[in-house]
Amino acid sequence: MAYVAVTGGQEAIAASIALLREYRCHGDNPLDPVAMVNRMGLLIDKIMGEAGLYCPDHAALALLQSEGSVEEAVFLLRAYRSSLTRAYYSIPLDGAQMRLLRRISAAYKDVPGGQMLGATYDYTHRLLDFSLLSEHEDTKIDTASSEDEECNPFHALRVSDLLRAENIIVQSPTHAKSSETVPEDITQNPLRFPTPRSARLQVMARAESGFLGGLAYANLRGFGQAHPTVGELRTGWLEVNIDHPLLDGQTLHVGEIQVTEVESFFSLEEESQLEELRDDPLKRMERGQGDKADTSTNALQIGVGYGLTFGRSDQKAISMSIMDFSLEKKSEGILSDDEFVLLHGDCLEMSGFISHLKLPHYVTFQSKLDRVRSTRKDTEACHA
Amino acid sequence: MLEGYNFAFLDEGAKRQVRRALLKAVAIPGYQVPFGSRELPIGRGWGTGGIQITLSLIGKDDVFKVIDQGSDDSVNAVSIRSFVSSCTGVEQTTDTSQATLIQSRHRIPEAPLRNDQILVLQVPLPEPLRMVEPREAVTKRMHAELDYAPMWLGLYEHIVRVGEVKIGADYPVQVENHYIMLPSPIPRFDNPKLHMNETLYLFGAGREKKIYAIPPYTQVASLAFEDHPFRIEDQADRACHLCGAQGVFLDELFAEDGQKIYQCNDSSYCLKRMNENGE
Q: Which domains does chain B possess?
C-alpha cells in the first residue's frame, strides 16, 4: 500500500469553519442587516471608515458575517474592495459645501451661521437605561425633524475662513504644494517617504480609530507639542460627483456620503522664517544667535490640522486633525515621524501581522535553536 | 469557482501592476520594488505578497503547489490552496516536479527545481537593513549608496558578543555582489539553493508592499567573513525516521515518550521517497 499525505490541516479548517457558523447563529434571534444599519449606525460608520469603503449595507453584512468583530468586518470590506475595478475618481469634495447636521466651534462663543449641537452623546449622563429592555420593536420616532432638515438645508462657511481673511492662518509651503498637484492614491500605490500630505490624510482616515486616538492623546499629554483648539467640527452630507464619462465639461451625481470634518487650530511660529534659519547657518550667525534660532522676533500664526472621517465620528476626526498637524510640523519625536505614525495604524496590517504569529514557525524555530545550541556548546566547553 | 469575482480575484489592472513590478525586479536582482499591494481575503502577514504574485502570474494551464514550512498540509497552505483554487479552478498538485508554479512559506523544496518552474516565496519583512535602521527613507538611501557598513558591523558585533551571527532563519545574502537582500525566513540550509540556480525565484511582501527576484543563474552569497564562514544548521548524524533521508532539512519532533526524533521537513519529498523505497 502506498503512503498518502495526511490531511489533518484540511479537516481541522473545515471543522473550525463549521464551528464558527454555529457560534454566529447562536440562539433564536437572527439579526437583520437593515436593522443593524438603522440601529448600529456608529459601529457601521467606524467600519466603513477603517475599510475606506462607504457602503452601510455591505458594512452591516460584514459585521453580521463576523460575529460583530470590527477588524474582521473591516477585513472583509477591504478584500472585497480589491476585487473591484477602479472606474472613476470623484471631483474633489469641499467640506464647506456640507449639508450640515452638526456644527460646533470651541474657538468662538458664536460664529456666523450659528452653532448646531446635532446628535451627540457628549451631554448624556452615562446611566444604563433599563427601560430600553422593554422598548418595543415598533417604537417609532417622529421623523419630522429630519424632514425639516431636508426642506431647509443648513450650510455655513468654515470658521477658519474668518481667520484666513485676517491673514492669521497662513498656509504652510508644503500645504500649498500638495494642493497644487494631483493627490496621491494610497489604495493603488505604496507609500513613499517622506510622504505628501494627501497620502498622510488618506492613511489616517483609514487608520484604526483607537490607534489614532492613543497617538493624539499622547500628543496632548506631553509626548508631543500639539495642543489644539477645535476650530470647527462639522458633520453632514456631501455630494459625490464625477466628471461625466461621455459629456465633456458636465458632471454626474453618484450619491452622497455622511462625513465628520474637523479643523483644529494651533499656534505656530511663522514657518518661512524658521526654515530660512534652519537651512542657512550663516544667517543664524549673522543674527548673532549661533546655533540657536532667534524666536523673539518670529511672529506667531494659527496652524490648522485637518481631519475627515466617514459618518459620525468626532473622536477619530479630532485625533486625525491633531496628528495631521503633528506630522506637518515635522518636529522632533516619534509623533512627528510619518513612518512611525502611518505604518502602524492600519487595522489590516496590524491584525494580519500579529495574527500570523499563530502560524506554525517550526522551521525558523529550528534555525533559532541551532544558533542557541551552537553558542551554548562553545560556552559550556569554556566553562568545562 | 467563486461567483461574481474576476479570474484570480484581483482586477486586471492590479494584476498588471504586479507584473510590471515583477519585470523590474527581475531586471534588478535583489532590488526591492515597491508596488501597490492590494488587500486580499487572506490576512496581511499570511502570505499576501506571494499570493498577489501567484494571482498575477497564474494562467489556466498552470499546475499549482503550495507549501508552508515544507508541508502541503499545513493549515495555511491548505487555506491558500483552496483560495487560489476557488478563484482560478487551476489544477493543484503536491508533487514538486509536476508543479509549474509553487508558492512557499519558509522553505525551498528539496527536489531540484527546473527552469520551467517558478518559486514564489512569501516575505514577512523584506528589509535586511531593518536590523540596523528602522526608517524606510534611510534604508532606501543606504541601498542606493551601497552603504552596508552598519550591516557588516552588526554581524561583527554578533560574533564578538556570542561568537556566532545570531540570525537563525532569513539569513541575509548579497546578490551579484550588489544589493543585500533577505531570502525570506528559509532556513540557512536553503540559502545555497539560491546561488546559480535554474529557477526563477520571486519574493512578495504584501504588508510591506515590496517585490523582488532572483532570476536564474544569479550569484547569491550569504553574508560571511573570511575568518567566520557562513554555516548552515548542524544536522549531521540525523536521519529521517520515516524515509531515512540524510542531508535534507529535518524537523525535530518529540515522540510520546519524550525522545527526540527527526523527520523530513519537506513532506512531499519524504512521501515520494517512502513510496519509492516501498516498491
A: 12-126+172-222 (3.40.50.11310), 234-279 (no CATH)
pLDDT digits (tens, 9 = 90+) for A97-155: 999 999 999 999 888 989 999 999 999 999 999 998 887 655 666 655 555 556 678 88
What would the grid cell of residue A349 be? Answer: 496590517
Single-letter amino acid, residue A108: Y
How many angstroms from the chain centroid is the CA of residue B260?
Answer: 27
Contacting A residues, span 72-111, partner chain B, CB-CB under 8 Å: 75-76, 78-79, 81-86
Peptide bond into B134 cis (omega under 30): no
Distance CA A379, CA A384 (A): 9
Under DSSP, is residue A22 helix (H, G, I), strand (E, B) or coil?
A: helix
Query: Which residues of B carry out catalysis?
Result: 30, 240, 243, 264, 270
Q: Which residues of A touch B209 (CB under 8 A)?
A: 190-191
| Joined grid coordinates for residue A154 | 443648513
Q: Which residue of B2, B38, B44 to mutate against A (max A Cβ within 10 Å)?
A: B44
Residue B193 forms contact with A (CB below 8 Å): no
Helix (H) or strand (E) holding A216: helix A209-218
Q: Which of A5, A82, A192 sits opposite B271 (nearest CB)?
A: A5
CB A10 within 8 A of CB A17: no
Preferred mutation among A83, A342, A355 to probe B, highest tally of B CBs within 10 A: A83
d(CA B104, CA B271): 18
All three cell numbers of B115, joined, read 527552469
Which position has the higher pLDDT, A281 or B140?
B140
**pTM, entire model:** 0.86
> Whole-angstrom Cα distance, residue B191 to residue B172?
9
Q: In this complex, is the C-beta atom of B54 within 8 Å of any C-beta atom belonging to chain A?
A: no
Residue A356's SS3 state is helix
Residue for cell digits 473591484?
A84
- In a 3-state reduction of DSSP, which class is residue A288? coil
Cβ–Cβ of A191/B209 closer than 8 Å? yes
Contacts of residue B107, defined as CB under 8 A and 6 or more positions apart, other chains included, come to A363, B67, B69, B70, B186, B187, B190, B249, B265, B266
Say which amino acid occupies B244. Answer: G
pLDDT more than 70, % of chain A: 82
Q: Which residues pair with A299 in a beta bridge?
A: none
* pLDDT the model gives residue B160: 94
Instruction: Tell me if B34 and A5 make a contact (CB, 8 A cut-off).
Output: no
Residues within 8 A of B (CB atoms), A 165-204 only: 187-194
Closest by Cβ to B11, choosing from A84, A363, A379 = A84
Cα dihedral value A225, A227, A231, A236, nearest 10: 90
* Among B residues 198-227, those touching chain A with beta carbons less than 8 Å apart: 207, 209-210
Vertex A10 angle, CA B42 and B264, to 5°: 100
Residues of A in contact with B228 (CB under 8 A): none
- Indicate the range of A14-28, A271-285, A317-331, B39-53 predicted with least confidence: A271-285
Point out the residue among A2, A5, A76 whose CB comes nearest to the CB of B267: A5
